Amino acid sequence: MKAVTRHLVHAAFAAAGLLALAGGALAQAFPNRTVTIVVPYAPSGGTDVVARRMAQVLEKHWGQTVIVDNVPGADGIIGTQKALRAPADGYTLLLQLNTMLMWKLTETGSRDLVGDLRLISLIQTAPLSFAVSSKFPGNTMQDFVAHCKAATTPCSIGTATRYAQLISKQLMDVAGIGNAIGVSYKGGGPMTNDLLGGHVTMAVPSVASGLRYVQSGQMKMLAVGSEKRFPLSPNIPTLVENGWPVLGDSWYGLMVPKNVPNEVFNSIVQAVAAVSKDPGLRAAIEGGGGAPVFSTPEQFVEYARKERTLLNALLAKYPLSE
Predict the structure, then answer these.
(1) What is the CATH number of the domain that holds 291?
(2) Range of the domain at 193
(3) What span, in angstroms and rounded, lies between the C-alpha atoms of 208 and 289?
(4) Binning pLDDT at 50, 70 and 90, where does residue 89 land?
(5) What predicted TM-score, i.e. pTM, was given to this entire model?
(6) Which residues does 82 contact at the CB level (< 8 Å), separation at least 6?
């Protein structure tokens, strides 16, 4: 009887060991199926271009399919809600902009989206630009301001995020264009199409999403929102140089729902850190007008929280309609 008992105990320990090994193998196996990157903006915009390049390098790194799912609407809230509702298993990633720091309510009803998500890494940063069609009869921000003040009908300013809307509202105030009309879009692609088609007077894309249209001769960037001239577009003056103390930078970051298990989250962090060194990815970001700024999760959280404090002060002065 004792021999049987010892046999059963040994078998139980062996089974437990096999289960532990299996659990470790499952953790190491992430991902073992398709991963989705949700982009909460329309196709062809800056976020879409970066997400698709990220998907390619992650797919190669993981040996698993990585797809991009564009879910535009409500300043990125609809796509973000989709990512928050997805199973917290690491198979749904979210590529989001700093506009998310301005939302009042999130899927969980809180006011802290940074706390409702686990921030993986910053991907890139680029200043906002203040752009006009190549057909616009002027080449400086002073030309634009004079044009709007002299126009018989109000100028229109297209924005694809609430963040760009806030910064443009501040600029119109300090530049003295009180009658400009704001036009909101679901993504940078539709906004740019309307600018090039003559339906809005100015658009406010990031340099990263608009630079290719400048290079093709379709668009002119009159100024950028960085404190100093952006190294990847050194010929474009800043708003500060024009005499207006207005700053506006756009960043892209990768994140997941907050309940993703630690071992899976750490695996994603390690993968992003590995592919951040990929020369093709970095060249794609820089070629599109962005600066690669990959970070640790802790650096990303600190960066986002500091920026949210600054944005809250701006929103108090320039409130936006909900």
Answers:
(1) 3.40.190.150
(2) 129-224
(3) 4
(4) very high
(5) 0.80
(6) 38, 40, 69, 71
